[in-house]
């Protein structure tokens, strides 16, 4: 079991089961939503996600048709996103999880639109678009 929270602690959650590999996304929407060069996402079955507190603080923004980005309305921390294209899957922001994680990045996605000021040099596979 893994626990996580937003910056202010108003939103807290836990995930039951093993964590998948971390997906690094360089698309322009993730950069804007996170305020950094990329987003680090872990896909999790919605059934494995349990909100422990802060449901009244959760806000959602539809960043593209059918895609919701969910964040804390108090501190602004991104918590997860979900899309109609992958029903039943949440993409948890890895930085919200507490403690040591066994998961490691698997690849870089959407590198065709990555920030020109960020070099990808860790040897992981790079894909110009989404996960093939």
UniProtKB/TrEMBL annotation:
Any Pfam family matching the protein: GFA
CENP-V/GFA domain location: 2-119
Keywords (A to Z) from UniProt: Lyase, Metal-binding, Zinc
InterPro entries per record: CENP-V/GFA, Mss4-like_sf
Family affiliation: Belongs to the Gfa family.
Annotated protein name in UniProt: Aldehyde-activating protein
Protein's organism: Aquipseudomonas alcaligenes (Pseudomonas alcaligenes)
Organism placement in taxonomy: Bacteria, Pseudomonadati, Pseudomonadota, Gammaproteobacteria, Pseudomonadales
């Amino acid at each position: 079991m893994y626990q996580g929270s937003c910056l202010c602690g108003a939103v807290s959650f836990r995930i039951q089961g093993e964590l998948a590999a971390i997906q690094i996304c360089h698309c322009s929407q993730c950069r804007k939503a996170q305020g950094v060069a990329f987003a680090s996402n872990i896909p999790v079955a919605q059934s494995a996600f349990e909100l422990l507190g802060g449901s009244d603080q959760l806000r959602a923004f539809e960043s593209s048709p059918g895609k919701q980005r969910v964040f804390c309305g108090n501190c602004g921390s991104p918590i997860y996103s979900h899309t109609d294209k992958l029903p039943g899957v949440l993409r948890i922001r890895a930085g919200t999880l507490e403690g040591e994680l066994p998961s490691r990045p698997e690849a870089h996605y959407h590198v065709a639109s990555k920030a020109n000021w960020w070099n990808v040099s860790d040897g992981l596979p790079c894909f110009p678009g989404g996960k093939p």
